[in-house]
Amino acid sequence: MQTWFGKKASAASPRPPKDRSGIRIGIPKVLNVWSTHQFWVGFLRDLGISSENIVFSSDSSEEQGREFGKGRGTVDCCYPVKAISGHYGELVFGQKKKLNIIMSPMIYSLPSFLRGHVSETLSCTRVMAGPENIKAGFMKERDIFAENGIQYTSPFVSMAEPDVVPNQLYDCLKDVLDLELAETQHAVEAGYKELRAFNKKIRDESRKILEWCARENKPCVLVLGRPYHMDPGIGHEIEGDLQAHGYPILWLQYLPIDQDLLDWLFGEEVQAKKIRSPLDISDVWTSSNSSNTNEILWGAKFATRFPWITCVLRLSSYECGMDQPTYTPTQKIVEATGTLFFKFGDLDSTKPAGGIKIRIETIVHYLAKYSDRIIQKKLALLPADCPLLKEKEKSLAASSSQD
Ligand code: SF4
Fold first, then answer.
1. Counting atoms of ligand 1 from 1, which one is nearest the CA of 317?
2. Most exposed residue of 28, 138, 180, 315, measured as fewest CB within 10 angstroms of its CB?
């Protein structure tokens, strides 16, 4: 068997470690690569591919689509999938140093923090099929990848089931990267480790923000969207415009899930057996198949309870079929405690800057006017011992004992 870098892969094992230092691999930074990219970095690095040779495409933009994706797109689809063609084109035509491989994973399921409390953690079907869908635009007349000396690969991967991932990646990548199963297993473990470490780091940062809000009695804003709304070309940085007015922003994907905090917010409902655990969403969402959707619903539950989240921004993309049924439930959950709810739907390639500016001004007005009242109302619904205020209480006690 001839691999792309000219070595013969023998069937005999074990073999010495492969030198993959010369391989350059591009990954389109689209869809759920936004929530799993640390896995792919950890996986590839463990296989000996250096960090500088792991190339992610840029953030989505109209220019990227115009320059690299034109004529190769898909019709009748949501904008985040349409935007993929620009990412593929940029990796093929827009690199100073040529890539050897483009790897665009077909992510079937996701490693959600809600796993075990929902029926499934699947990706949207458009996320699963997006790579194949867009690949067609680069192969329908002739193979653009091969013409440019690039091997295209699209591993199907059930990321919610770590036990099956090594075999899935081995089957798809063994010839592309001259892999052995044992090293694939090791690399998959390394990938999950990196992903877990990254998620924990960001959750810890989110907790620090929430602690600051509690200590200073200041409001913050939670974004309810899909991970790829963090892409400035998909979410249009609407939350950044609000942050510029001094309101800290958090994303639901990285809310802290420490037990003390969850017990404070959900403990009474667990004790009353209304829910099985703080991460249970069966009280508000019974068709819990989609990972991102489940997390959005859970984020709404967190926001409506947490006192210092006084406003929720709901982001959604043009022609997103998955989001449609969630609009009313998320709004009702969030507004149940008077928390402000603002939706930016049908986000497309163009940032409607004027409209966003006016709405941001409106949101800022409401935040300034109602936040104190919302915080007091929500605090009254919770037990008195907020874990985020313990540090403040300790330091106050220490300073009064010194007096
Ligand atoms: S969840 Fe919505 S925006 Fe995302 S890929 Fe599916 S249909 Fe498109």
1. 3
2. 180
